[in-house]
Automatic annotation (TrEMBL):
Its EC number(s): 1.11.1.7
Coiled coil: none
Main location: secreted
Pfam families to which the protein is assigned, alphabetical: peroxidase
Disulfide feature: 35-118, 68-73, 124-324, 203-235
EC supergroup of this enzyme: oxidoreductase
GO BP term, pick one: hydrogen peroxide catabolic process
GO molecular function terms listed in the Swiss-Prot or TrEMBL record: heme binding; lactoperoxidase activity; metal ion binding
Residue numbers binding heme b: 196
Descriptive protein name: Peroxidase
Catalytic activity entry: 2 a phenolic donor + H2O2 = 2 a phenolic radical donor + 2 H2O
Keyword set, alphabetical order: Calcium, Disulfide bond, Heme, Hydrogen peroxide, Iron, Metal-binding, Oxidoreductase, Peroxidase, Secreted, Signal
InterPro entries named among the record's database cross-references: Haem_peroxidase, Haem_peroxidase_sf, Peroxidase_pln, Peroxidases_AS, Peroxidases_heam-ligand_BS, Secretory_peroxidase
Length: 331
């Protein structure tokens, strides 16, 4: 064997070992023959849904993240319970997922399936990935090529969510370890956190920072004081805990880098947000994204592409659901 042949063999072996079979089967033009217009069909449905309610954007983006981080990007978070609220979506960590995210995928799926050539050819998991890209682009963020070829998972359990999703009170160390377990770097973590630029939160998710912190004022000292007072006005102590406010007080409807500028000013709504700036290990990345929107967008696209590869189901591992909320009947 020549040295050139040996080098080529080693390279191929390395690629086989480092690329998972599922990742290797994803491709941008996956539906080129079976449903060539799938991207434009999904985008049209998403655009129509977004025009009806602005909650569509953060709800869809959050649904994608919650799906991928638990069992991989397989739309398992969408499955309805078959018995006593035992599905992923019934876990307390998922109860706050807005119905508009689910509705966006359902409407996009119906639009795709209305085309005879495409009927039951495109997975709910891929439609969710495409819809996520579209809500980002339609709210001013970057558009990017979406790798496709995921199948829908057949398993969805309430218990599987435990310890798999980041919590608002996590600090950088816990967040970093959680993201690393999925092959995501610190830069990926900071970039994906930028999705909170169009997010919203229930008062109960951050009330401890403005009422129960162990300080004289009961306010987290890393929180901008005038902003904290503003939060107290919007979320009084006896307010309905389901009351929701926008996470970005500056440009809440635009996908931009204002999230990072807010962090510099002490206006990160969650501890998990503000810790990205207060911790020296991630502060430089925050400062870069705050000063350079292009750098943020490029890092975000790289990170969400990696996110979309987590736990992908292919071959006999999954199916293409006829109904995103229900497993196909075995014939």
């Amino acid at each position: 064997m020549s040295s050139q042949t040996l080098s080529l063999f080693c390279l191929l072996l390395f690629l086989l070992l480092t690329l998972s079979p599922s990742h290797a089967q994803l491709g941008v033009g996956y539906y080129h023959n079976s449903c060539p217009d799938v991207e434009s069909i999904v985008k049209s449905a998403v655009k129509q849904k977004l025009e009806q309610t602005l909650v569509t954007a953060p709800a869809t983006l959050r649904l994608f993240f919650h799906d991928c981080f638990v069992r991989g990007c397989d739309a398992s978070v969408m499955l309805a319970s078959s018995w006593k609220k035992s599905a992923e979506k019934d876990n307390p960590d998922n109860l706050s997922l807005a119905g508009d995210g689910f509705d966006t995928v359902m409407k996009a799926k119906a639009a795709v399936d209305s085309v005879p050539q495409c009927r039951n050819k495109v997975s709910c998991a891929d439609i969710l990935a495409l819809a996520t890209r579209d809500v980002i682009a339609l709210t001013g963020g970057p558009s990017y090529a979406v790798e496709l070829g995921r199948l829908d998972g057949r398993i969805s359990t309430r218990a599987s969510v435990r310890h798999h999703l980041p919590h608002p009170d996590f600090k950088l160390g816990k967040l970093k370890a959680m993201f690393a377990s999925h092959g995501l770097t610190l830069t990926d973590l900071v970039a994906l956190s930028g999705a909170h630029t169009i997010g919203f939160s229930h008062c109960s998710r951050f009330s401890k920072r403005i009422y129960e912190f162990k300080s004289k004022s009961r306010i987290d000292p890393t929180l901008n004081l005038p902003y904290a007072r503003q939060l107290q006005q919007m979320c009084p102590e006896n307010v309905d805990p389901r009351m929701a406010i926008e996470m970005d007080p500056s440009t809440p409807r635009i996908f931009d880098n204002m999230y990072y500028i807010n962090l510099q000013q002490g206006k990160g709504l969650f501890t998990s947000d503000q810790s990205l700036f207060t911790n020296a290990r991630s502060r430089n990345i925050v400062n870069l994204f705050a000063s350079n929107n292009t750098a943020f967008e490029e890092a975000f696209v790289a990170a969400i592409t990696k996110l979309g590869r987590i736990g992908v189901k292919t071959g006999k591992q999954g199916e293409i659901r006829n109904d995103c909320f229900v497993l196909n009947k075995i014939s």
